[in-house]
Amino acid sequence: MPGPKWISDGSQLADPHGHGERAIKFLHLLKHPKSTAPNNAFELAPFMERIIRRVYGDTFLDDQGSIRRRIKTVFLLLPRGNRKTTLGAALALLHTFGPERVPGGQVISAALDRKQARIAFQENIGTITMEPRLLAAARLKDAKNQIEHIKSASVYEAISAEAGSSHGRTPNFVLADELHAWRGSALWDVLRTGLTKTKGSLAFAITTSGIGQTTFAFEMYQYAKRVESGEIVDPGFLPILFESPADVDWRDEENWHAVNPGLAHGFPDIDGLRQLAREAENRPMQLQAFKQLHLNVWLDGAAEPAFDMQCYDQGAEPFDLDDLEGLDCWIGVDLSSTSDLTAVVAVFPRAAEGFYVVPRFFVPEDTLRKRQERDSVPYVLWAEEGHVTATPGNVVDYSVVEQYIIDMGERFRLHEVVIDRWNATGTINRLTEQGITVARFGQGYQSMTAAVSATERTITAGVLQHGGHPVLRWCFSNVVVDQDPAGGRKFNKARSAEKIDGAVAAAMALARATAAEHGGSVYESDDRPAGFLSF
Q1: Residues 396 and 364 sit within 8 Å (Cβ to Cβ)
Q2: Please, which residues have CB within 8 angstroms of residue 147's CB and are 6 or more apart in sequence?
Q3: If you count DSSP H runs as helices and E runs as strands, how many of each does the chain have, helices first?
Q4: I want to staple 472 with a disulfide (CB 3.0 to 4.6 A). Which of 166, 359, 394, 477 is the partner?
Q5: pLDDT tens by residue, the chain, 535 residues
Q6: Is 432 in a helix, a strand, or coil?
């Protein structure tokens, strides 16, 4: 069964100082405007109660004899409709009005935007107004998204992902809502570092699965997976993961129940899920959404990925570039615009079946951080680790790109450079002057069909050896393929989730290398692959 065993095995959870029990008692005193229980009592499902006991009951005495919380960060991965936000909002009240409050405490719920942040806030407004004792103890500041416990001056506030306005905070509790949708780690970093200033602080991240493997949320998810498996020992980090494998039988309702603990208690609505599943039968986009949001399958970049990324990942074993010297080489180039990502991908046929792929990416140095914030992609880290080359200024320096290609030509048996002909005339002329054979390559159906097919065959066979380059994987995971009535196929940059420049460059080079393997030089035959023009 997906999900931690301790959620459902009925085991005794540690609570040496009664903090888990007192949290449960407080929450049972609450009322909720949407509750169907008698007297609108707050409905605490058994799996929620187990989570609360696990988090708040795990305490110990420090050297000074004070009771300390062991768990500092909770990462809860739970499908949509299982009342994540309701649980999180109640925990915010526990820290503002309940036994976990501290004098002058700062309790924060944070979300991507103001609208999402207001959801937990409005739930708490409704809860407070239904309980006279809470209402008498509270000062409601709706315009500021704040609720204050008058006696202790503890303040609960709902904020959106605007890190610049959050510096200087010293929260004792942070609820990070739908982390998968956050565009970066800036707000989390500000709040998480603020938590370290307060003893007994707690960060509680709740989210459904997301899309893409370059996001901040995916990085946290991966960390949670490693803690869960025991690869990383971190007693202060509690992963609570309700998720399905990528190949889950999404039609099997038993799998729905396995990752949706609320279904046993009437939420989410089972008939609603059945309707979504029926629609997903013939709507690929709906199927991907169903798997992500209701079965908690973390997807790759595109909603409907063109390539099987599990097959792609079979080529992640590292290799040494020096070992490729003496091999034939074809290079694909996607220059894009001067302010965007430029990709140069070298392809080397292996002695055995398949190809080695060596990518190099170029971005303007002055736009790294702006691009990282905009795309939620770790460009700065990639640059530091050498996965991208940052050229000076705010535009890509094509002379750096061209020199890299020239150097590759001197080092390896470079047969040809194939280049997306858009915006490439200057580079083509300069490389040709250096004695390098260059072929223009269009991006339409006629040109790209062979390239898409060659790439697909190589990936599906698991013989594309790319060494696990993170930027190239990101590009491939973003690809969406269009098909015309005649069966022609091409990459669609407009429909793809994010950048696909590396995949485009690789596909062009693979098409050329494959053609050469099956018939010699394209320029020695009248049977040229579509897209190659001499000039």
Answers
A1: yes
A2: 96, 121, 124, 125, 128, 138, 139, 140, 141, 155, 156, 157
A3: 19, 19
A4: 359
A5: 568 999 999 999 999 999 999 999 999 999 999 898 999 999 999 999 999 999 999 999 998 989 999 999 999 999 999 999 999 999 999 999 999 999 999 999 999 888 888 889 999 999 999 999 999 999 999 989 999 999 999 999 999 875 455 667 889 999 999 998 887 788 888 898 888 888 889 999 999 998 877 788 989 999 999 999 999 999 999 999 999 988 899 999 999 999 999 999 999 999 999 999 999 887 766 887 899 999 999 987 655 567 888 889 999 999 999 999 888 999 999 987 766 789 999 999 987 789 999 999 999 988 888 887 777 788 888 999 999 999 988 888 999 999 999 999 999 999 999 998 777 889 999 999 999 999 998 888 888 999 999 999 999 889 999 999 999 999 998 888 888 888 888 988 776 657 899 999 999 999 999 988 765 444 333 334 444 443 3
A6: helix
Q: What DSSP character marks residue 67?
A: E
Task: Return the structure tokens found at 400.
Answer: 């750096």
Distance CA 513, CA 347 (A): 7
Q: Is residue 73 helix, strand or coil?
A: strand
Predicted TM-score (pTM) of this structure:
0.71
216: nearest Cα among 172, 264, 176: 176
3-class SS at 325? coil
Beta carbons of 311 and 300 less than 8 angstroms apart: no
Answer whether 472's CB lies under 8 Å from 359's CB. yes
388-391/355-364 β-pairing: parallel
The residue whose two tokens read 């649980």 is 87
Sheet-wide strand order for 73-77: 138-141, 146-149, 154-160, 106-111, 173-177, 202-207, 73-77, 237-241
CB atoms within 10 A of CB 380: 15
364: its two tokens:
């303007």
- d(CA 150, CA 318) in angstroms, rounded, equals 60
* Measured distance CA(459)–CA(465) in Å, rounded: 9
Give the Cα separation of 276 and 279 in Å (integer).
Answer: 5
Q: Which of 49, 85, 260, 247 is nearest to 179 (CA)?
A: 85
Contact 238, 208 (CB under 8 A): no
The total of other beta-carbon atoms located within 10 Å of residue 261's CB is 24
Q: Supply 263's token pair.
A: 């279904």
Extract the tokens encoding 148: 């204050």
Residue 280 near residue 287 (C-beta atoms within 8 A): yes
